[in-house]
């Protein structure tokens, strides 16, 4: 980079095309001095305002810019781990990983690599990877499109710092765009192919992770997963379940009791592709659903999105309630659907008659592992 003047309004010239119109309004640093870009001329020239006097006008490679911006993109993975905010996988640096200062989540200043200062590094393997998910569990787990990684705890059990941070690749499968979830002592994730559910499980004897295929005996249930969430039990039931929504509107439910070496799958089939996504809040499971069948039943706004709520107790009296308040296209709760209570009750019974006693069905379909 070559500046045209030491202060005031200046031009910043690069040896090759790099600038884009979206860089206007962004701050870059030349030899440690911040310059606010005020105008775009070409791919090699922009105008800027120097915040302080520049040290000299010599051409130098000692310049940098923010990792995140509207022009360069933003990270797609985020989590909190060991008192740091971790970000990963930006548009322009897909293998980049950043950790904030310890206890100062919005401060990304790497400084002089003191133990409490921010961390910035890139993840490398034998092929270019894109970080898609970060999960805080026993370690910071890093999921990419080409494999699974983690940051091990130092031998002295000290916190991760800029000087001791180390990333290790564990398995080569790659994760899909569906966010992983912790279940029964492991982290389950959908493989990049979309046909396998794996658990990222730590082995204390070998001091590493393995990604076992937990859906090996039920691959027919995973056709095209689109969403995943986990229920860790309710106030009146101890079981934990993973709900994996499929593109066709069905749900594959996974149950695991590692201490008893028991695991099992069960399908939830709904007519007309009713279920679209799932979310677990506290001990309640919510499904977003829609159904063209409402047209046949003369229900107003048949294309609206409805929220479904599972009762806390999954028992033989299990049923689903469809809320009478619907969402308009902006996602804002609209007025109740007048005169639709009996209609919705009828639809709920018709659409969910396959959802019987979940624990009983799991016992019938479960299989035990080694």
Describe this structure in words.
With 370 residues, the protein is mostly beta strands. The chain has 3 domains: 2-64; 72-214, Beta Barrel (Lipocalin); 220-370, no CATH class. Helix content is 6%, strand content 38%. It contains 3 helices and 29 strands. It has helices spanning 293-296, 341-351, 358-365; strands at residues 2-3, 8-13, 27-30, 33-40, 45-50, 63-64, 77-81, 84-88, 96-99, 119-122, 131-136, 140-144, 148-151, 168-171, 181-183, 186-190, 197-203, 208-213, 225-231, 241-246, 251-257, 262-268, 275-281, 284-289, 306-309, 321-322, 325-327, 333-336, 367-368. The strands form 7 sheets. It has a 6-stranded antiparallel sheet, with no helix packed on it. Strands 19-20-21-22-29 form a 5-stranded antiparallel sheet, covered by helices on one side. The longest helix is centred in the C-terminal third of the chain and has 11 residues, at 341-351. The model is unreliable at 294-304 and 313-370 (pLDDT under 50).
């Amino acid at each position: 980079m070559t500046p045209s003047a030491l202060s005031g309004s200046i031009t910043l010239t690069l040896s090759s095309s790099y600038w884009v119109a979206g860089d206007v309004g962004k701050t870059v640093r030349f030899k440690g001095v911040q310059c606010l870009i005020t105008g775009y001329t070409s791919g090699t020239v922009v105008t800027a305002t120097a915040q302080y006097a520049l040290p000299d006008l010599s051409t130098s490679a000692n310049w940098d810019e923010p990792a995140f911006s509207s022009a360069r993109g933003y990270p797609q993975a985020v989590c909190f781990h060991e008192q740091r905010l971790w970000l990963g996988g930006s548009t322009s640096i897909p293998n980049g990983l950043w950790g904030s200062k310890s206890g100062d989540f919005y401060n990304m200043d790497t400084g002089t690599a003191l133990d409490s200062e921010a961390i910035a590094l890139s993840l490398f393997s034998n092929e270019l990877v894109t970080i898609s998910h970060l999960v805080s569990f026993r370690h910071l787990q890093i999921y990419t499109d080409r494999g699974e990684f983690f940051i091990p705890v130092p031998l002295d059990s000290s916190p991760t710092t800029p000087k001791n941070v180390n990333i290790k690749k564990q398995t080569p499968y790659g994760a899909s765009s569906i966010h992983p979830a912790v279940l029964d002592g492991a982290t389950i994730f959908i493989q990049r192919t979309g046909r396998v559910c794996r658990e990222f499980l730590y082995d204390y004897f070998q001091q590493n992770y393995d990604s076992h295929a937990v859906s090996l005996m039920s691959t027919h249930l995973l056709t095209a997963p689109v969403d995943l969430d986990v229920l860790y039990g309710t106030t009146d039931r101890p079981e934990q379940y993973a709900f994996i929504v499929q593109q066709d509107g069905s749900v594959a439910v996974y149950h695991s009791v590692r201490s008893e070496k028991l695991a099992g799958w069960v399908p939830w089939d709904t007519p007309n592709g009713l279920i679209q996504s799932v979310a677990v809040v506290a001990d309640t499971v919510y499904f977003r659903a829609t159904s063209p069948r409402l047209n046949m039943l003369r229900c107003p706004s048949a294309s609206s999105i409805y929220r479904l709520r599972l009762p806390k107790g999954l028992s033989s009296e299990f049923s689903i309630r469809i809320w009478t308040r619907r969402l308009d296209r902006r996602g804002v709760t609209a007025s109740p659907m007048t005169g639709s209570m009996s209609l919705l009750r009828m639809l709920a019974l018709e659409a969910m008659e396959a959802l019987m006693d979940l624990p009983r069905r799991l016992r019938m379909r479960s299989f035990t592992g080694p």
